[in-house]
Amino acid sequence: MTETVSGTQQGQPARETRAACEKHSSHNPPAGRGGGGARDDSPVTAVGSGRKPDRDRVSGPDANGARDGSPARIVDPGRVPDAGGHHAAAIAVAVDPVPAPGRSPAPPTADEPPAPPPTVPLSARALPPPAMHTAAAEFAELMASRRSVREFSTEPVPDSVIDLAVRAAASAPSGAHVQPWRFVVVTDPVRKRRLREAAEAEEYEFYNRRASAEWLGAIARFGTDWHKPFLTDAPAVIVVFEVHQGPNSPKPYYVKESVGIAVGFLLAALHHAGLATLTHTPSPMRFLNEVCERPPEERPYLVIPVGYPAPGTRVPDIVRKPLEEVMVRC
Ligand SMILES: Cc1cc2nc3c(=O)[nH]c(=O)nc-3n(C[C@H](O)[C@H](O)[C@H](O)COP(=O)(O)O)c2cc1C
Question: Which positions fall inside the Nitroreductase domain (predicted)?
């Protein structure tokens, strides 16, 4: 069990000190609670802040939280200095049961409530307001500079950067933590060609028959048509799928919301790395299952060409709504 016992967002001293936490370490768990995770009278052993938690591990036996009956530990996920040398501390305490010497933890009985789910310490950075403002302003500026690009250079991009961006995307929150997404990274020129041909066949129908005049009017200013050269020019095309219930996948919740958030992370990560993207939605998209060899429970969501903009690329002159128009406070 993990409890955040102190910490501050404002650079104030933590309410409870490490020493105060350490004093609990002489306690033994109350009888009968061994398998169920300890609460506030549980044993705690300080191990200091030397080790950073594994950021990819959100649960598991080795994320600074004991699972195996080993002593519980105080974990300081980091004291983050700001430019002025201030520190904001967030201290989490991993509290796990320690059996008394020579005694095994008593197994839970039918009368006992079920053991609480396992937890690990929160690893979160806390910034004092000035540094927070700077970070927020820098991120807002970075994101405001993102644009959809429709003309790509054929220059390859490092696989590792794509991997890391997908890793960032896959860290997104998801309904019931089902993580209902698949990211298919297409770099093979033959497969990209098939993808483009199939997409252009659908897009030809869309632009010439299926799209309403109103829809065509709405997208006229982007100058798009059924030709999709970016699907072969871009060195990588990430096809994102929603993963629904299937033989190897559980029932997901809030799939579209979850995948949408993950794609937002992905676009942000790729842009942050200096790569250009387009969010492309050929309509309909079912052909992508065949091209990407994905099973039917995976449903195409978006196609994202990734790469460098072609030299001299220009983008539509569009204006974003000002903050006052998109945000209300109440
Ligand atoms: C869900 C979604 C679907 C989109 N589909 C297409 C598409 O099929 N083709 C295209 O050229 N742009 C597509 N776009 C890109 C939008 O036209 C673009 O995001 C918008 O014009 C704003 O421009 P910006 O991305 O440069 O800020 C799509 C964007 C979103 C969010």
Answer: 144-308
